[in-house]
Amino acid sequence: xxxxxxxxxxxxxxxxxxxxxxxxxxxxxxxxxxxxxxxxxxxxxxxxxxxxxxxxxxxxxxxxxxxxxxxxxxxxxxxxxxxxxxxxxxxxxxxxxxxxxxxxxxxxxxxxxxxxxxxxxxxxxxxxxxxxxxxxxxxxxxxxxxxxxxxxxxxxxxxxxxxxxxxxxxxxxxxxxxxxxxxxxxxxxxxxxxxxxxxxxxxxxxxxxxxxxxxxxxxxxxxxxxxxxxxxxxxxxxxxxxxxxxxxxxxxxxxxxxxxxxxxxxxxxxxxxxxxxxxxxxxxxxxxxxxxxxxxxxxxxxxxxxxxxxxxxxxxxxxxxxxxxxxxxxxxxxxxxxxxxxxxxxxxxxxxxxxxxxxxxxxxxxxxxxxxxxxxxxxxxxxxxxxxxxxxxxxxxxxxxxxxxxxxxxxxxxxxxxxxxxxxxxxxxxxxx
Length: 433
Fold this sequence. Notes:
The chain has 433 residues and is mostly helical. It has helices spanning 4-11, 16-38, 49-77, 80-83, 86-109, 113-139, 148-164, 166-176, 183-215, 222-239, 251-275, 279-283, 289-310, 314-322, 324-349, 358-386, 395-403, 405-416. It has a domain at 1-142.
C-alpha cells in the first residue's frame, strides 16, 4: 500500500486539475468525432459538417495533445519550484481558454473572426511557452545534465511547433489575395499539419522516450542515438514535400521527398536496432494497460513511418490523396495510435493516472477496441474502393457503431481518475494523479 502522506501530496499537486482538463478534452474530441460519423448515417438539421470538423481537429491538436505534452515537459525538465509558478499556470489555462473559444466558435462560423482570434491567441501563447520553457530548462541545467541528449529532441520539437505556425499565419494573405481553396491554400494547411505531426508531436514523444531511458539508466548506443536525431531532424524539413505531391510537382520534388522518407525509414531501423536489446527493461517500466498501449504506440510509429515512405512513390501518393478513408485512418493512427497512446502510457508510468480500478481498466480496454476496429474499417473500406469492390454493406452504420466505443471508453477512463489509485509507481519521483 502506498504511503498515505504521499497520496495526500499527490492529491494536492497543482497539476492534477490541468491533467483532468486535458483528459476531458479527449472525451469531448471523441464525442465530436462520433457526431461527425453519425452525419453519414442520418442528417443532423442545422449542423455544418465542415465547421464541426474544424472544431474536432483544433480541440484534438490543441486541447488534448498540446496540454499533455505541456504538462509532461514541465515535469520532466523543470524543478517543482519553477514549474509550479504562476507563469506556467497562466500559460496553461489561457491556452485552454483559447481552445474552449475554438470549441464553441468553430461549429457556428467555421473560420471567422471569433475562431481566428482564439486560434491566434493560442499560437502566441505557444510562442511564449517555447521561449519560457527553454529559458527555464537551460537555467535548471536540463540542456547539460543527465537529460541533455533527450533535450535535443525537445528543443527540436519546440522549433517545429513554432515553424508549423507559419502555415496559419500564411492563411490570411492567401485568402486576402483571392487564393482561398487553391493549391497554395491547401499546401499552407499541410505545412501546419506536417510540422505539427512529424515535428512537434513526434520529436516530443521521442524526447520523452529517451528521457525515460536516461532516468532509469537504460543504456543504448549514444552514437546511434545521435544518428536517429540527425536523420529525423534533417529529414523532417524536406519531408513536407510528401504533403504536396498531390499537385504533381517536378521530378526533383519527388526525389527530395523520397530521400527524406527513406532517411526516416533508416532512422526507424536504427531506433528499432538499439531498442530491441533492451526491450524487456523498457517494457518493465510499464504495467497493466500501459504495457498494451505503449506496444501499440511503437507499432503505430513504425506504420506511420512506412506509410510516409510509401507515399513517396507517385502511384501510392495519388492513391493516398484520392481515398479519404486512408487519410482519416492515417491521421488517427498518428494522433491516437502513436502520440495519444504513448502519452497515456507515459503518464501512467509516472504515476499520474489511476492503474488499479476496474472502471479504469474497462475504460481503456473499450477505448483500445474502439480505436482498432474503427481503423480496420477505415483502411478496409479504402482497400475495397481501390479494388473496385464498392462500399462495404452498411459501412457508415458499422463505423458509427464501433466509434461509440471511443467516447464510451474515454469517459469511463476519465471518471476513474477521480478515484485515488491503490498502487502508484513512486520510483519516478514525479507525483501527479
